[in-house]
Every structure is written in C-alpha cells, then in structure tokens.
Amino acid sequence: MNKKLVIYGASGHGKVAADIARLNGYEEIIFYDDDLGKSVLGPYQVIHDFKGYEDYDLFIAIGDNATREKISLRMKKEIITLVHPAAVIAEDVTIGKGVVVMAKAVVNSGTVLRDGVIVNTCASIDHDNRINEYVHISVNAHTAGTVTIGKRTFIGMSVSIINNITICEDALIGAGALVVDDIREAGTYIGIPAKKK
Ligand SMILES: CC(C)(COP(=O)(O)OP(=O)(O)OC[C@H]1O[C@@H](n2cnc3c(N)ncnc32)[C@H](O)[C@@H]1OP(=O)(O)O)[C@@H](O)C(=O)NCCC(=O)NCCS
C-alpha cells in the first residue's frame, strides 16, 4: 500500500519536510494550509479541509514554536516523526512524536528529543541533552554535552551552547550567539557571550 502523508503548513519548512518524507518512502504527499490563497506548493497540491484524507499520515511543519505546539495539541491523530537518512542519530537517543531531524544533523548518545522538536540542517546535539517540547534548533547550531533546553525555545542558526547549560522555556537565542551561562528568564539573547537584548 502507498505511504500517504498530509503536511500541515505550506511553507519552505514544509517543503524540506516533504523531501525527507519522500526519502522515507512516502509516495503521496499533500499539504494542508488555512490560507485559502495557497493552492500549490512547488509540485504539491494544497488542501484546506482534511475530509477525504483521514487515512493519510500527518506531520506538522510550522516553524513558529508556539503555533506548532497549539496546532499539534489539538490534532486527534498521531503526528509522525521524520528523520533524514543522512542524519546521524545514536542508538540510545529517545525521539518523541512530530519531530523532524534534517540532513546532516547529528544527535549523540543519551539525548532526548521531546515531541515537536525541530533539529534543522547540519545542527548537532551532543550527548545527554534534553531538548524539550517544540524547541527549534536552527541550521548549523551546536550544543555541547548535558544541555537542557526548555519548551518552545528557539535556538537561532549557528548558535553554540557550551556543556552543562540550562536554558528556560520561551527564550530566543539570536543567530550566531555563544551561550556560556544558564538562561533563566524568557526573552531574546544575542552576542558572544549571549546577553539579554
Ligand atoms: C535576534 C533577532 C531575533 C533580532 O531580531 P529583531 O528584533 O528584528 O532585531 P533587528 O533586526 O531589528 O536588529 C536590532 C539590532 O540588533 C542587532 N542584531 C540582530 N540580530 C542579531 C544577532 N543575532 N546577533 C547580534 N546582533 C543582532 C542588529 O544588528 C541591530 O543592531 P543596531 O540596533 O545596532 O543596528 C534576529 O536578528 C535573529 O537572530 N533571528 C534568528 C534568525 C535565525 O537564526 N533563523 C534560523 C532559521 S533556520
């Protein structure tokens, strides 16, 4: 039987997810979007109603962490996880539902990726990290060992986080920052070393 998938969110992020889905054997891929103005996304059709697609698997491809959480939690259907075949994931890594791990990402031993996490292209997460629900680790960001990141926190591209750091929920770490101290308060942090903006 054909593997069939609806991807919620007709966006650039969704197109990358579609590519990973194809590499995971999905032959029929269709997008869902609330925006009635969107009818196609590249080669894919965009639908605005799930009726008739109940037997398709479901993936949520929404970049905004809080929105991805809200939509994921109201879905009755289980959300699949997508892992690019060129990602490297240690055998004892725990991965939740609705996670995507993109090309050339590395996730090392003992790490936990909770539901709805995005590990973007070329990001690396070292050993024994706890990446909580709906966190986004952007392109080329790197965490050292034993890092904990709170729910919905956004780690910008090329951010580095040294070992044994804890970052709270709902923080935003700007592109290129170096995190060397725990972050205990939600807000935007930038620079080397990262400071509140
Ligand atoms: C931190 C961030 C959220 C700030 O966005 P913003 O509030 O719109 O900020 P602005 O672009 O108005 O810039 C305000 C000031 O902060 C500086 N700034 C912005 N982002 C910065 C960053 N990441 N590091 C250092 N300085 C930064 C700007 O140069 C500007 O400085 P100035 O006032 O001296 O001119 C954003 O720049 C950022 O880094 N986003 C992450 C993007 C990303 O990683 N995407 C990955 C997708 S996979």
Fourth CATH level, the homologous superfamily of the largest domain: Hexapeptide repeat proteins
- Report the C-alpha radius of gyration, rounded: 17 Å
Text of the CATH class of the largest domain: Mainly Beta
Q: Oligomeric form of this entry?
A: single chain
Which spans of ≥5 residues are poorly predicted at pLDDT below 50?
Answer: none
Mean pLDDT: 98
Shape: globular
The appropriate CATH architecture of the largest domain is 3 Solenoid
Tell how many strands the DSSP assignment holds. 24
Total count of helical runs of at least 4 residues: 2
Element layout with pairings:
Blueprint: E1 3-8, H1 12-23, E2 26-32, E3 40-41, E4 44-47, E5 57-60, H2 65-74, E6 82-83, E7 88-89, E8 94-95, E9 100-101, E10 106-107, E11 112-113, E12 118-119, E13 124-125, E14 130-131, E15 136-137, E16 142-143, E17 148-149, E18 154-155, E19 160-161, E20 166-167, E21 171-173, E22 178-179, E23 187-190, E24 195-196
The protein binds coenzyme A.
Your description of this structure?
The chain has 197 residues and is mainly β. The protein folds into two domains: 3-61, 3-Layer(aba) Sandwich (Rossmann fold); 82-196, 3 Solenoid (UDP N-Acetylglucosamine Acyltransferase, domain 1). The chain has two helices and 24 strands. Helix 1 (12-23) links the parallel strand 1 and strand 2 (26-32). The mean pLDDT is 98. Bound molecules: coenzyme A. Coenzyme A binds at residues 120, 138-139, 156-157, 172, 174-176, 188, 190-191. The site of coenzyme A has 12 residues, from strand 23.
